Amino acid sequence: MSFPRVLERLVQLPVVLFGVSLVVFLMITLTPGDPVEIMLADQRATEEQAAMLRADLGLDRPLVERYLVFLGNAVTGDFGLSFFHRRPVIEVIAERLPATIELTLVALLIALLVAVPLGVAAAVRRDSWLDRGLSALSLFGVSLPGFWFGILLILLFAVQLGLLPVGGRIPFDAEVPRLTGFLLLDTLAAGRPDAFLRALSHLLLPAVTLGLPAAALLARVIRSSMVEVLAADYVLFAEAKGLPRRRVLYVHALKNALIPAVTVLAIEMGQLLGGSMIVETVFGWPGLGRVVVESIFARNYPLVQAAVLLYAVIYVLLNFCADLLYAALNPKVRL
Amino acid sequence: MREPLLRVRNLRTVFPTRRGPLAAADGVDFDIAAGEALGVVGESGSGKSVTFLSVLGLVRPPGRIEAGEIELDGQDLRTLPPAALRSLRGRTVALAMQDALSALNPSLAIGTQVTETLRAHAIPVDPRTEAVRLLTRVGIPDAARRLGDYPHQFSGGMRQRAMIAIALAARPRLLVADEPTTALDVTIRAQVLDLLDELRAESGLAVAMITHDLAVVAERCPRVMVMYAGQVVESGPTAEVIAHPRHPYTRGLTESLPSLDDPDRVLHPIPGQVPDLAALDAGCRFRNRCVMAVAGCAQPVPLLPAGEGRLSRCIRAAEVTP
């Protein structure tokens, strides 16, 4: 990727964040209901007391001034206190984020491991029963509601077969010191392969629930771009050189077919983050997504605001990474 | 005659279509000897490319070879297991394509595309050194420094020569050159053709030059084979075939060719169109466009000797006048 392009992305980030911060701020202000009234609902407060609280919270100031104060605090990482944790929002998020990232990355890995071979196989045996079957299956996968699929998996693997645990990240007796917050790494760092396996067994069902629908979409994209690439002259030429089939498919064809898939992948990562809210709730996964859902119901706005801003940052960074990956795959994009 | 390097008999390659099977190559017979340059001439859809893709075992499904024999270096390619066929590709018979820009992989470095061929055939050389040697051999300047370049960083002529270097990396004995110079300008075209001539003289490489350009064949290939509608209609020594065609289609081709000696000569394009390959009868396939057609042309016409080293698929071969 060329330098101006990197610069463009770096300029883009604050612009996007500014827009998101505005939306997040208005979300609170425009929500029906006066926060002061909600807070004082069963306190039988007088008009004066209510006015005092309003002044205390800064709610009597003009909207613009309130936004600038919010923005100024946000820039220094101060998003206020989480109502029901009674701790700074930023602390709560830092504590929950690794669980969500771990879940998302493993889901992404599952999506790739499923989608790439299936997409390639379907493209190679185009219009065969395999291709048609996969096409139907992936349509099913794309339209699968995450919460329903998750519950089905729980019923089958946890309740009926009793093979996998449900709920939480790791049992208490396998707890290890949290260094990175990623339990798969922390258990290995602590030299506890048993704990690693137990953490993995907790991770498996939510990651599959999150990863399979992503795999379905990705497989369709890879299939269609592989079909196109397989008809290219350079694939015929590679075969005519006597290269092994595997090399023709996975180096010559796939490297070019992945270029459009990378963009989809970045969008999917964003969707995985969003999807993790539902999946974390279904599986009792102590990640950011679940705490956001809880906070929305509890009108715990400071945390919701900070989390939404964080999601926006991650989303922009993901697209930045996609651009880098795109350049790595496509030499023509290089400077 | 010596045992030919490539011997094809009665090759029939079909593609299923909605209107029934379409035989893109239908009863094709020919031989190529070691070190020989055979010109393969015909218009688009005459079956020349399909014939040689069949030889390489690279007919794309749902197309398939339905019948015939393909013997390369004494081995029957049609009964060979896929792995053995793969190891013949590039090593015994190689392919050079019309457009190097689309034949070279845009996202792999040129050097990689040379060395992977060497590695696939386990050629006992240092791949990097050999890649530099091969690219230098085809006239890529400063080849060592350009191994890491991608195809789009090469000029058109360099790309074409690099592609030929890649095709020849594993030292094949037969090169199928499918319109290797059509996309090139005149000076680069001469360079590429000279290169092929040199390699032929040096290493006994046989070349099948597929082209619709009779002039290139006249200049570079001692022997020519003319194809029409999936069949060989005439073959023989190039000079004689052009001077004294033994098939009306060949005569039509030579008449539609401009001449330097007589620039004012009136050109005669062949009237009519190639028949629909999915709806053919058993008779001569050229007869709907042929001024010499007679009732007997509706009967099947075999490829028969028509003079010294010559074959023609015309019942009135002797009457064809230049």
Word description of this protein:
The complex is a heterodimer of chains A (335) and B (322). Helix content of chain A is 75%, strand content 1%. Chain A is mainly α and 335 residues long. Chain A has a two-stranded antiparallel ribbon with strand order 1-2. In chain A, a hairpin with a 4-residue loop joins strand 1 and strand 2 (87-88). The longest helix of chain A is centred in the C-terminal third of the chain and has 39 residues, at 245-283. Chain B is of the alpha/beta class and 322 residues long. Chain B contains 11 helices and 12 strands. Chain B has helices spanning 48-56, 82-88, 100-103, 110-120, 127-137, 143-146, 156-167, 186-203, 214-220, 238-243, 248-255, and strands spanning 6-17, 20-32, 37-41, 64-72, 75-76, 93-96, 174-178, 206-211, 223-228, 231-237, 304-305, 311-312. In chain B, strand 1 and strand 2 form a beta hairpin. The mean pLDDT of chain B is 88. Chains A and B meet through helix 10 and helix 11 of A and helix 2, helix 4 and helix 7 of B.
Features of the shown structure:
heterodimer; A: 335 residues; mainly alpha; MetI-like fold; two-stranded antiparallel ribbon; 1% strand; globular; B: 322 residues; alpha/beta; Rossmann fold; 8-stranded mixed sheet; 12 strands; 30% helix
Structural class designation of chain A: mainly alpha
Taking the alpha carbons of the first and last residues of chain B, their distance comes to: 29 Å
Distance between the termini of chain A: 6 Å
- The CATH topology assignment of chain A is MetI-like fold
The poorly predicted ranges of chain A are none
Strand percentage of chain B: 15-25%
Give the full name of the CATH homologous superfamily of chain A.
MetI-like
